[in-house]
Here is the input.
Amino acid sequence: MFSLPHPGAGHVLADLLRYSLGLSAWKQFQASRWSLRVNPSSGNLHPTEAYLVAGAAAGLGDTPAVYHYAPDRHVVEQRCTFSSTLLDSAGGPTCFIALTSIHWREAWKYGERAFRYCQHDLGHAMAAIRIAAALAGLGARILPDWSHADIAALTGIVLELVPFFAGLMGAQDLTEYLSSATPLTDLISQVWGSTLQNIVIIGALFAVLNAILAITLQFARILWSSARDRAWPDAVNATLGRVHHRFQSPWVATLILGTVATALCFASDLVTTVTFTAVLIIVLYGLIAIAALVSRVRDKDTPRPSRMPFWPLPPLLALAGVVIALTQQKPHDIWIVVILFGVAAVYYIAYLHRARHDRWVPHTVPEETL
Here is the structure.
């Protein structure tokens, strides 16, 4: 927390964010191009997000508001406004910066170490903010008495949990609500009528479309990274690894993935897609449980951030759940997953493993440099 100067508050805040959490440089190696940030981060993955809660100030806004900082564009995105009386007790145009973490940005790479690295990154971000604030002549200080719930309420991320608990508390018949295929929209229809129900359904459709686009872009980058890490023959790596010169996006990988996904949508029905995806996710959970068993047996002396209480009971219970869940799935879906893993195993043994020092070389950062 700190107090903003009355004149030029927006410019001062812009400099503070740029020199603490903003982009500092761009690097490029062959077809790969990536940004660097002022605040250090494990593997340059940056799970930390910053939110601003500020009063009315010149160059920022005419009313107190909550903002989210987007470092890639160096802008603050207004999330909501509120009454100025809420900040009157602070004695001036006070600004709060709240930090949150998106753990999956670290977890996909570092697994169990992700939680520790997220805390590490938060420390870097806090130090960077305090240094930048001092350079700007602002007396930033930490508010250690604020709980996670307070910060969640301040930034608005607590609203993600509100619909879930509101539905449970507002249901007239809890058994019927929990057994419904569409509990939330049924509840809305009962309480507020079909018009609001249709509005919510249309909004949900747009949200699903947005999620599909995000997932497509995510997996396109995974496909591109496989080419970057030389998981395919050289000609395929060169094609999949192409990056658009202007937008810096993996356009070939995105185009291929989108085309294949579109073709599969027309070639299968919704039920098949859902059941096959369920089997694939179940098998992936099983592989995670197996990895937890093998890792702790084979590498007993490896330092771990979590002791996994009651080991090996958690992975064994997970495997038991996987077996039970698979017995309830369609054999057709299970055979598809078996064939996919079989093809992957053959490809690994016949191609990747034969030259494992030259093929499939993951693009990682040594832990001692983090």
In short: The longest helix spans residues 194-228.
